[in-house]
Each structure stands twice: as structure tokens, then as C-alpha cells.
Amino acid sequence: MAKIGQKAKEQLAAWPGYEPLQSGHPLHRLAVLWFRVLHYAAVLGLVIEPVTLRWLRANKAYECCFTQFSQHFFTPCATYLKSLQELDTGCRMAENG
After folding, report:
1. How far apart are CA 1 and CA 24, in angstroms?
2. Residue 68 CB: number of other CB atoms within 10 A?
3. Between helices 50-58 and 29-44, what is the axis angle to 10°?
4. How buried is 95 (Cβ within 10 angstroms: 0-12 exposed, 13-18 middle, 19+ buried)?
């Protein structure tokens, strides 16, 4: 099982509702969801709804789990984070009129 850094482990444990995938597993259940949403949106060209986009932006700290996610599941497509940045920029533009 991949080890997660102590600092990242402390950050994850401090988040409200921290829930590992299973007892002793280094990944937070919501970190897995964060990567999957971004990966599939990028790969399939999906439009992320505003509520989900706000959640993704608010939980960008899950990015610290990239290595563990990649080792346990799959490596997200190379543009997964770029899609969040583009969505973030587009959302800000829309908010500013």
C-alpha cells in the first residue's frame, strides 16, 4: 500500500467528514471522487455543473493525493487539472459579467 506523507495525512484527517476508503487506507473517499470527476470530465469533454465546480475548487487540496490515487486506481489524464483551471477561469469570467 502506498504511503502518504505525514503532512498530507494530517491535512486530510483535519478535513470535516474525513472518511478513508477503508480502515488504514491512505486515501480519503472524497479525494477519489475529486480525481474521478476531473479525469472523466476531461476525457469525455463533459461540462461540470456549477455546484460541482464549486466543490472541486474548494477541495483542490486533494491534489496532494495524486501519487496515492495513481498507485491505487489509475493515472488521471494529463489534462485533468488543466480542465479545472479552464473551468475556474470560465466561471470567474461568467461571474464578472
Report:
1. 10
2. 22
3. 130
4. exposed
pLDDT score of 91 = 52
Distances (CA, A) of 89 to 15, 46, 73, 77: 26, 16, 29, 20
pLDDT along the chain (97 residues), means of 10: 57 63 78 93 89 89 90 89 65 48
Between CA 55 and CA 53 the distance in angstroms is 5
- Encode burial over 22-49: b for 16+ CB neighbours within 10 A, e otherwise: eeeebbbebbbebbebbbebbeeeeebe
Question: Helix 80-95 and helix 50-58: axis angle, to 10°?
Answer: 120
pTM of the model: 0.69
